[in-house]
Amino acid sequence: MTPPAQHPVQHAVQHDTRHPAPPRKRRTAFVCRVHAPQGYETLPALLRSLALSNPAVCEDFLVLHAGAPPALDAARPLHPRLHSRPLDADLSGYDTLVELEAHWTLAPELAVQRTPAPAPPLADTDFRAAYFRLKGAKHPELTVHLGLPLLTERPSVDLARTVALALREQGRYEEAVEALSGVLERAGADQPRFHETLGSLLVAVSRYAEAETHLLLATASPEVAPKAFSQLARLAWLRGEEAAAREYAADGLDAEPVNRACRAYFTGEAGGGHPPEEPEHPSPGEQFAHAALYATGQENAGDKLLPEAVRLCVHPDSAPDTGPARWHPVPVHRLFDERALAEVNARRGLVVGGGGLFLPDTMPNGHSAWQWNIPDALLERITVPLAVFAVGYNVFDGQGVFEQDGAPRRARFRRSLATLTERAAFFGLRNHGSVEKVRELLPPHLREKVRYQPCPTTVFRKLLPDWSDPGSGERTDTVHINCAYDRATLRFGQGYGHFLAEMAKAVRALGGLAEVRCAPHTPADERFVHDLRREHGIALPVDPLYDRSNTEVRALFRRTKLVIGMRGHAGMIPFGCGTPILSLVSHPKLGYFLSDIDRPEWGISVHEPRLGALLAERAGALLADHAAAVADVHDRQELLWRLTRENLGALHRDFGPTAPAGAVPGPRLTAEAAPGPAARRPASATGV
């Protein structure tokens, strides 16, 4: 009879809370203390049992040793995060340590299964094959680590697709294409899922002609056809072939009438929609070209406001014109080709931004490795003044595609970034964190060109000539909450249940102070409302910002008393409207912004153990003295506006002599003097 399963010892690591570390995901590690050579002999069996019993679990595995570091050659092929440390190593960087013994065999849910007669150990190849025969979810890192060697040992089409999907999840598109190409001769025309996966990955590396061939093969299957046609429509749009995009989308709707992606390309909403019609006789020499992400339909509300904010900022006239008479749109995701180059060079200048364009995914391409789909050769041939304005480095913690030495995307991005910086007359990034990250990726002689330019959404009050702050009694007695769910694993790790439970506590507490409402920027953000009701019995009213105009979004943020947001622009836009904010920090950029305005206490990590209590406490303090909180927002905003005006003066000197009066530099405030991590709080300012 098998003895009952037991569980390893787990304990929390104690941290010094007097000087809290920057917000980050909670870190867990397995710890195995090895005191004798026999421990190293049984370690591979422990690692195999861990992967086979818990295939979706992949945390750091620390082998603690006394004396010389052990030889782990036999164990390293079995786990992607295997590290050796001395017994007295400092492990305070982890929040939870799970103690394991080298002779143990693990069962599901990390139970310890002690069998009287353990089975003979599997050979590495057999172990890897056994892992991929398991049903259910598998961790992408384990999938790649075990799958790539198995593809060499026992190649198959299904295995190649599984590994390629895991590589795609990690942003390793070139390697994913290579994995599929290795079994291409084995893949028949009757394997549509293989061809759809390969086709979409070929789009991601900008091998468009090959991508179209494989996607067309995938349309032969009724089950795969709708997705394949939507990919073909996207590919046609990327290449500037509007009619073909609409035809592919129509074919996709014939196959699946409710397919949202095909519907968006058929109506012209996807990819930023059709460029707005320009005046009948526009004068290109009086226009700026504007390379940006143009969101439409039910896409991200923050992305819809960004192009308008940039245009208002660059041209803050008494009657600002953000339309086609003054601006020529350049959708960043569309391939920048010879025609686009000629159109841009006929304009007065080119503005790139704002938003988090330095991002490896969303709409990946092989030309630049960031969001603007432009080859270096064409970027070098832009002859008009070029300004990079309030762009952000938008990479998540744990999404280190741009930081990994030797990664193809890192090399491609660095070349494109250097070309862009060399070409730019003005290069402004929206927070100091982005400035530091981008400078690290540039050659030394280009680093000083990168300066700090706040996102123009943070100074909306200064940009709109008809703006008026809400008067006494005009604000609604409401608190709006936004939560984001794109890249949920990168945001929450394994802590989503904890986050939701803590938010339930906060919502209940805040309900006694104001009406709590949800402000989703995308339809996917409404998951917060559904999960909160299902798991905790709390119902929240919803104000869907993705269905509202830019003016309506600003009006809501102008009137509400407090916005608690997880998206970057769920904080920056209400702040720009003069409304107090608190940030649910699941991405470094939120901390960057709060550091720039010297208000780090306005941010709370989604992984904070006391999230609910802290959020209720800080929100309550802001609401209790709301007039002072609003005055503090205005004070912080004034610093950003003064720096913006100075930057605009420099920008317009490069773009020509007809700079608008509103862009005359204000009081001297350099990037070094702008509010940052070391800035002091004014004596009159109040905080939480």
TrEMBL record:
- Gene3D superfamilies for this protein: Tetratricopeptide repeat domain (1.25.40.10)
Q: Which residues form the signal peptide?
A: none
Q: This protein's superkingdom?
A: Bacteria
Residue segments, region Disordered: 1-25, 656-688
Question: Polysaccharide pyruvyl transferase domain: from which residue to which, for each copy?
Answer: 350-585
Keywords from the UniProt entry = Transferase
Q: Which GO terms describe its molecular function?
A: transferase activity
- The keyword Ion transport is assigned to this record: no
Transmembrane residue ranges:
none
This protein is called what? Answer: Polysaccharide pyruvyl transferase family protein
